[in-house]
């Protein structure tokens, strides 16, 4: 196991606390894949409880006794026949990450990240967050007896997420700026050595998140979908999942790879713009805006990895507006019984758009990832729902109302 720069290839010891290469580029964790291949088989994996730690050999842990877990992962992969029928698709699945312990996929990153913090012996962990990262980190630091500092943007933090961060006992600091400003500030704190940083710039967090890719194959009985669609904010998750699929192929578990398809919100889409131009560099969005607060990010830290995932998988990137997101959020709830937060619905909205524009072939086997639980952001749901009908306790009135 080593940490390696994705651009210049410089290698760093696995025990070194470092977030980016000397050259300024992102790092990733590299394993001895031949050794994994020898030690692991599908049958062996299946003997263990499903979840992040089923795939222990693929994770950067030296001492399994240091693992911090709240039973993350093992989320349902729903076959969505009602929605598939409505959209004219042959085979559609939703991987519902809202079923994680704190209600988002961030838990997969944090079980790994806090385990890493345990191995390093660090005591204070911090992050910048639009909400879910802070909720998750706060829970995992509570579980592992560490201190937690979270920086949130002013306003616009979904109520459920804020409640979680506060309730798990984090020091919650709201800055008068947006997520990208908060990110700059915690990076500075990490450089000063005041905190161990668990944003997705930290390659260890992404190692946990790549298990979404593992589980999708596992739950499809080792078949690989043609396409995976997910919302993209800081672009860590799409990069992580792509790495997971590649590692399963490298170690002989699967024999093909899916097209990675990233969906951004209309008001925060630097990756989509780069993709449309066919380039690898992004131009940050100074004033990101969208109802989907979890992807309201103008300067995604992992864009280099994400562009690689999209281009080398022959994938796609597109954007959807807030109205399309809300419509898709309702459609998923009302056809499949899956309630997700607005950012997660971007994957469904993107699916619909890419069917309409002919990018997606209706015979593809598709997995949409819904990243966070609908209860995270009750305000967003209530705003777009019909109000309850209020009546007196009178059977005649009740009968009139239900007959309407
Ligand atoms: C964090 C988050 C995202 C964005 O993931 P990135 O890795 O930042 O691209 C999307 N949806 C939800 C619900 C999230 O919490
Ligand atoms: Zn480098």
UniProtKB/TrEMBL annotation:
EC assignment: 4.2.3.1
Domain of life: Archaea
Protein's pathway: Amino-acid biosynthesis; L-threonine biosynthesis; L-threonine from L-aspartate: step 5/5
InterPro entries according to UniProt: Ser/Thr_Dehydratase, Ser/Thr_deHydtase_PyrdxlP-BS, Thr_synthase-like, Thr_Synthase_bac/arc, TrpB-like_PALP, TrpB-like_PALP_sf
Reaction(s) catalysed by this chain's protein: O-phospho-L-homoserine + H2O = L-threonine + phosphate
UniProt-recorded name of the protein: Threonine synthase
Family that this chain belongs to: Belongs to the threonine synthase family.
Alphabetical UniProt keywords: Amino-acid biosynthesis, Lyase, Pyridoxal phosphate, Threonine biosynthesis
Keyword Iron-sulfur included in the entry's annotation: no
Record flagged with keyword Nucleotide-binding: no
Names of required cofactors: pyridoxal 5'-phosphate
Pfam family, one: PALP
Any one Gene Ontology molecular-function term assigned to this protein's record: pyridoxal phosphate binding
Binding site for pyridoxal 5'-phosphate: 132, 233-237, 371
Secretion signal, residue range per the UniProt entry: none
Domain (Tryptophan synthase beta chain-like PALP) ranges: 68-372
N6-(pyridoxal phosphate)lysine modification, residue list: 106
GO BP, sorted A to Z: isoleucine biosynthetic process; L-serine catabolic process; L-threonine catabolic process; threonine biosynthetic process
Biological function: Catalyzes the gamma-elimination of phosphate from L-phosphohomoserine and the beta-addition of water to produce L-threonine.
């Amino acid at each position: 196991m080593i940490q390696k720069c994705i651009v210049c290839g410089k290698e760093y010891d696995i025990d070194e606390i470092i977030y980016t290469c000397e050259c300024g580029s992102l790092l990733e964790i590299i394993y001895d894949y031949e050794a994994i291949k020898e030690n692991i088989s599908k049958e062996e994996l299946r003997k263990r409880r499903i979840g992040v730690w089923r795939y222990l050999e693929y994770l950067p842990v030296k001492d399994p006794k240091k693992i911090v877990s709240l039973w993350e992962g093992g989320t349902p992969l729903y076959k969505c026949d009602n929605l598939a029928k409505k959209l004219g698709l042959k085979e559609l699945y939703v991987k519902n990450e809202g079923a994680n312990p704190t209600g988002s996929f961030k838990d997969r990153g944090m079980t790994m990240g806090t385990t890493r913090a345990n191995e390093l012996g660090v005591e204070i962990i911090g992050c910048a967050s639009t909400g879910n990262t802070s909720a998750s980190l706060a829970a995992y630091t509570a579980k592992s007896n560490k201190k937690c500092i979270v920086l949130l943007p002013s306003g616009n933090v979904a109520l459920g997420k804020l409640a979680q961060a506060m309730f798990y006992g984090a020091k919650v600091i709201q800055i008068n700026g947006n997520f990208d400003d908060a990110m700059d500030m915690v990076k500075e704190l990490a450089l000063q050595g005041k905190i161990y940083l668990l944003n997705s710039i930290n390659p260890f967090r992404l190692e946990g998140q790549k298990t979404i890719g593992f589980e999708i194959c596992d739950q499809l009985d080792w078949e690989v979908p043609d396409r995976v669609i997910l919302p993209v904010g800081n672009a860590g998750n799409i990069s992580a999942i792509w790495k997971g699929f590649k590692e399963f192929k490298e170690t002989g578990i699967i024999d093909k790879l899916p097209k990675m398809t990233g969906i951004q919100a209309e008001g925060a889409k630097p990756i989509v713009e780069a993709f449309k131009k066919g380039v690898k560099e992004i131009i940050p969005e100074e004033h990101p805006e969208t109802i989907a607060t979890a992807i309201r990010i103008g300067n995604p830290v992992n864009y280099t990895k994400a562009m690689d995932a999209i281009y080398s998988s022959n994938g796609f990137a597109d954007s959807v507006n807030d109205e399309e997101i809300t419509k898709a959020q309702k459609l998923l709830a009302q056809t499949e019984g899956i309630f997700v937060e607005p950012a997660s619905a971007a994957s469904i909205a993107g699916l619909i758009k890419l069917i309409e524009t002919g990018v997606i072939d209706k015979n593809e086997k598709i997995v949409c990832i819904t990243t966070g639980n609908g209860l995270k952001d009750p305000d967003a749901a209530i705003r777009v729902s019909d109000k309850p009908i209020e009546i007196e306790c009178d059977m005649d009135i009740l009968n009139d109302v239900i007959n309407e």
